[in-house]
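TASK: fixed-backbone design
INPUT:
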């Protein structure tokens, strides 16, 4: 079964979206997937001066027309209208994107923004989409430039937490990597007692060695269940730092992480998900 056959690409006409276009198109080629662009406009984004001269419904209709015209013209060379549909919605951007994605889309691919936006991610459209979308969300890495690194059929790095949801995440990663002609590399983080110690990879005879061996046994069982035999890196240290260290060390196309099936503060967008999306040096596929 194809993991990704319909991609939803939210656009806000920003330079980040322009830079993301080649990445989205390449992903569509690899997965033989269709791409639909969606733009969400705010019907109430008018000022008092406009209301003074025209009725509210006339202004809202005009803004919808302008947004629709911009959407049809946006990235028309990369995504011609004859092949790539457009969706126009109004209201809260994250809510409408998540709602549209439920209508047959397999993944949302959207950029984050560089610069000051890195410090503003929480509460942004990206964060809200990660929390509310039912399908996987692929976000570009933060960088000084807005263009994500290209997909080169390398490694799909998959984080494994050994929880009850790990088999689902690993199974998805295996199917996606196979479709993209890539290879899976698993990484598991064992928290260290001292958060100030440097990150260690694959310790052999340290205090954590017994825990590491138990982790490998559980990971081997998970791999057997999903029909996988991938290399495994055990990182010892604070979980976020350990995973980010592995992402920076292993040359990969994407980092696959799991999200809880439940939205809300204790659900999909937990602190680890948020910080990984914000700080990862490579694109993140949140499953």
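OUTPUT:
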């Amino acid at each position: 079964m194809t993991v990704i056959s319909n991609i939803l690409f939210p656009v806000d006409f920003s330079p980040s979206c322009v830079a993301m276009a080649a990445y989205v198109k390449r992903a569509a080629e690899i997965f033989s997937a269709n791409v639909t662009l969606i733009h969400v406009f705010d019907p109430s984004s008018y000022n008092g001066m406009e209301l003074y001269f025209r009725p509210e419904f006339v202004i809202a209709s005009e803004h919808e027309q302008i947004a629709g015209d911009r959407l049809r013209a946006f990235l028309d060379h990369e995504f011609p209208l004859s092949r790539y549909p457009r969706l126009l919605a109004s209201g809260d951007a994250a809510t409408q994107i998540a709602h549209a994605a439920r209508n047959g889309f397999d993944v949302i691919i959207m950029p984050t923004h560089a610069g000051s936006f890195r410090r503003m991610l929480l509460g942004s459209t990206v964060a809200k989409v990660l929390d509310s979308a039912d399908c996987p969300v692929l976000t570009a890495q933060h960088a000084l430039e807005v263009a994500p690194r290209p997909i080169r059929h390398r490694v799909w790095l998959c984080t494994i937490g050994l929880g009850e949801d790990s088999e689902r995440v690993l199974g998805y990663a295996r199917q996606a990597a196979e479709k993209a002609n890539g290879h899976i590399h698993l990484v598991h983080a064992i928290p260290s007692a001292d958060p100030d110690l440097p990150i260690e990879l694959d310790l052999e005879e340290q205090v954590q060695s017994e825990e590491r061996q138990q982790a490998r046994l559980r990971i081997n069982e998970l791999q057997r269940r999903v029909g996988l035999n991938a290399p495994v890196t055990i990182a010892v240290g604070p979980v976020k730092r350990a995973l980010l260290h592995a992402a920076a060390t292993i040359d990969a196309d994407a980092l696959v992480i799991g999200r809880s099936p439940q939205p809300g503060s204790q659900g999909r967008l937990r602190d680890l998900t948020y910080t990984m999306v914000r700080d990862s040096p490579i694109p993140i596929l949140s499953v």
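COMMENT: DSSP finds nine helices and eleven strands in the chain.
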